[in-house]
Amino acid sequence: MPRQLPVDELVSDPYPIYAALRAEGPAAAVEVRPGYQVWMVTRYVEARQALANPALGNDPGNGRWMADVVGDAVNAAMNKHLLRADPPDHTRLRRLVSKAFSGTRVAALAPWISKLADELLDRIEPGEKVDLLDSFALPLPLQVICELLGIPAGDRHLFRDWSDVIISGAHQRDRYKDMAEALVAYVQRLTAVKRADPQDDLLSDLISVRDDDDQLSDQELTAMVVLLLFAGHETTMNLLGTGLFLLLTHPEQWAALRADRSLVPAAVEEMLRYEAPLRTAFPRYAREGVQIGDVTIPVGAVVMIALQSANHDERRYVSNDDFDLARTSATHLAFGHGIHFCVGAPLARLEGRIAFNALLDRYESISLAVPPEDLRWRFSTLIRGLESLPVIGTEAVSRQRQ
């Protein structure tokens, strides 16, 4: 009989649940919501192996409830992307997208991202109580991915509401249909504009990219834009917001960063390990019986790979539940592993390094404006992120002299 996981606890504090599951074995049959049984992989070694196991493919029933709500056409336009594809389709899609999502394009954004970070912080008065999630952690990655894709500046505010509802998924079914239809219609209209008048942006590149006369279909193109928009700002927003929360609740680590900026890249990796923005990888489907350690997962089972649990596995990490910027291992699974490793990982890391350096430049100290226990985590079984982050910052002396 599968264990029913307490969803509220899984959202607010999942780590004791994960620790108990890891103690029992590398994988366990659980219900993540009533009637939805999955096998959850919780240990690091087995999670890494499962992420690269071709016998664990795209779940053919995954997202079926979405199709029931919005219809097959809109559902396909939302989901026919890399994370829901298997080889050879995945190989083809990734090859086409990678040509447009190049390291050169990402690196060229660094000066603009730094300027944007400073401009966002300029709007905050010293000593002012402010929600740094809304004023900094959200608009920075949202502006970056919209700039990269070529989303007009006047339209970018639309994506916050769309994202909140769509990430919540089945928990906001009553609003999902309207938001999904509006998002797909918007992307399709913008694609038509870019097709007629290409610009120097990623969406124009995705429209035109070809490989041996192969190109993205209309549904694949729309789905890839939707994926890049959400993955491009949701995960990085939560990296920035949750990462800062960790620094504020571990002031000795903030002091260590101020004393040694060379720790910033390692700090970003430890934030990703300690509070991975994605709780789990996208669900997989066992095409055949799969061995996970000493556990046999039956054919046809849905498999969820708990990235957060793997990143806290005591078998992999010394002092696994300590937030430690001196940790040198960057082999966490926050970006996944194998063929589905996040194509946007270099951009997220770049934004993280720039954002935390900008905060260190700006503030001598930052403190939470409310007790930590008053903060709430977003109700999502996929995303790990705070609803808000109210803080008060003391401006650095070097800034005050300007």
Q: Can you name the CATH architecture of the domain at 63-274 and 333-400? A: Orthogonal Bundle
The rounded Rg comes to 21 Å
What global shape is seen? Answer: globular
- Our estimate of the beta-strand percent is 5-15%
Q: Which CATH first-tier class of the domain at 63-274 and 333-400 would you pick? A: Mainly Alpha
Widest sheet: strand ordering: 1-2-3-9-6-4
Indicate the CATH topology of the domain at 63-274 and 333-400. Cytochrome p450
**Which structural class do the helices and strands define?**
alpha+beta
- The CATH homologous superfamily of the domain at 63-274 and 333-400 is termed Cytochrome P450
Layout of SSEs?
Layout: E1 3-4, H1 7-12, H2 15-24, E2 27-33, E3 36-41, H3 44-51, E4 56-58, H4 64-70, H5 72-79, H6 89-100, H7 103-108, H8 110-122, E5 129-131, H9 132-137, H10 139-149, H11 158-168, H12 173-196, H13 202-208, H14 218-248, H15 251-259, H16 264-274, E6 284-286, E7 290-292, E8 295-297, E9 302-305, H17 307-310, H18 345-362, E10 363-368, E11 390-395, H19 397-400
Helix pairs in contact: 4-5, 5-14, 8-10, 8-18, 10-14, 11-12, 12-14, 14-18, 16-18
Quick structural gist:
Belongs to the cytochrome P450 family. By secondary structure, the protein is α+β, with helices and mostly antiparallel strands. It has 19 helices and eleven strands.
